[in-house]
Each structure stands twice: as structure tokens, then as C-alpha cells.
Amino acid sequence: xxxxxxxxxxxxxxxxxxxxxxxxxxxxxxxxxxxxxxxxxxxxxxxxxxxxxxxxxxxxxxxxxxxxxxxxxxxxxxxxxxxxxxxxxxxxxxxxxxxxxxxxxxxxxxxxxxxxxxxxxxxxxxxxxxxxxxxxxxxxxxxxxxxxxxxxxxxxxxxxxxxxxxxxxxxxxxxxxxxxxxxxxxxxxxxxxxxxxxxxxxxxxxxxxxxxxxxxxxxxxxxxxxxxxxxxxxxxxxxxxxxxxxxxxxxxxxxxxxxxxxxxxxxxxxxxxxxxxxxxxxxxxxxxxxxxxxxxxxxxxxxxxxxxxx
Length: 310
Fold this sequence. Notes:
Blueprint: E1 3-8, H1 12-24, E2 27-32, H2 36-40, E3 48-49, H3 53-57, E4 62-65, H4 70-78, E5 91-94, H5 100-112, E6 116-119, E7 122-123, H6 126-131, E8 135-139, H7 155-162, E9 168-172, H8 176-205, H9 209-217, H10 224-235, H11 245-261, H12 267-284, H13 292-297
Parallel strand pairs: 1-2, 1-4, 2-3, 4-5, 5-6, 8-9
Antiparallel strand pairs: 7-8
Helix pairs in contact: 8-10, 8-11, 11-12
């Protein structure tokens, strides 16, 4: 019999995860999203759209979260009196990007409500979610791949459906998985803004961009993301987003807060945040995050994005 799960948050990533799980046939998925049409369109893939979170979690074994942030999670799970009592004996699998302290606090609250908690944020985007090749960072009381883990029979099959076994990494206790994920997302911002700045100078100098890229590709400085974003930057056409600029801004802000609490120097983070904020202010919030090039290389302009495809 198919395992019953609730999937809360069917935006860009949640919808792809839902489709992936339904295609495998091992799960019965009840889904909910604050914008109802985003969950309703998943009915054609076999999922059961629900009008409320309480309806979605009723009768399920695992609650999978792809909600926007920790505040949204608390609003849905902990502050809704029709949901919190239903957490008893259920596993909450948190797969979005939130802070390590937020994740640890959430775990304690879910435990107090009689449930259990595993954090498993992912690196990758919509294509990887559809193919089941996401990189997964797990924080939990025990590695769910181990037969002795309390989550081996519930969480481990889900993780294997979404990420190849070699790509599922048990990091340590709750909070450590969230920290590694946040650290990786900070690199998305740093690498993209850094590359944008170099590319902008090359263009302004009149140097050949192709020669610049050839040298970069042959060096230890190269990262594949540069080529993935290059044409978007050259065309200043950032298109529909797998990971939109507004989400990058949320993650940079969150990393800055966590870094300050950890006693790190946050001056560079403040500058990164400023660049991404400027990009959002240009009307590029919903485009691909490569749009940070616009803010870096064309600071005096206020280009508006072409409306992303739905």
C-alpha cells in the first residue's frame, strides 16, 4: 500500500517534487499551497489537492515541507490550532532553506507536539527535482539510511526518490544540514556577483569576452555556473526562473543574520545583499538570479524584466 504523505508548498520546487513522487507510484500525496491553483493543477498527476493544511495532513504519515521560510512553516504547522494536534506520531520532513537555529527550534516544537523532525534541504533546481538527482543535506538524530534509524522506513525511501543515494549526505544533528545548505546558497550569490563584476569590466574595456572565457575555463578559477549564466548576462534577458532573484535575496539576508550570530565578519555579505536588493528593486525579483548582472554592470539604469513565463 502506498505511503500517505502531505506536501505543503507546491511552488516551483514543491510542484516538481510532487510530480516526481506521483510518477514513481509508491506514495499517495495530499498537497496544499497558499495559492490554491498551484496545488489544484497537480490533480492531473494523481495528487489530491486540499483546501487547508489541516485537510492535507489528515491521515498521513509524513509531512513534507517546501514552504517559503521559517515564518511560513510556523504559521502553517504550529500556529494553526487545527494542524498542531495532528502532528502527533507524524514525521515532519523540512526540505526548504531556513536557518540552522530556526530549524533546531522548529524541531523542539514538533517534538513537544508529539511528532518527529528531519531537515533535508536540497541543492539543485526544478530539472533535478523532476529527475530525482537533487543533492540532499540531512540533519537528524540519526542517519535515516541506517536500518536502526527511527526514520529509515519513512524518510529514507522519500530521500532516495528525490536524490541518488550517493548524493544524500547525513551531516549531523538538526541544524547542521540547514547550515551547510545556507552556506552553499551564499556561494550562489558570491560567485554570481563576482562573475558579473569581472564580466562587466571585460565588456567595458573592449576586451574579447570569448577570450576571457577561454582563459577562465582553463584556470582553477572556473566554475560551471559561469557558462550557465553567461548568455543570459550578455543578452540581459534573464527569463523564467528555476531559482528567482527574490529567493536569493531571502537566503543572503538569512545567511548574514546567521553569520553575524556566529561572530563572522559580514561586510561582504552586506554588499552582496545590497546588489541583490537592487536587482529586485529593478523589477527583476521573479527572473533568474543571473539578473544580478544588471545591477552590477548597469548601475545607472533601471531595466524592467520581460515577464517570466508561467
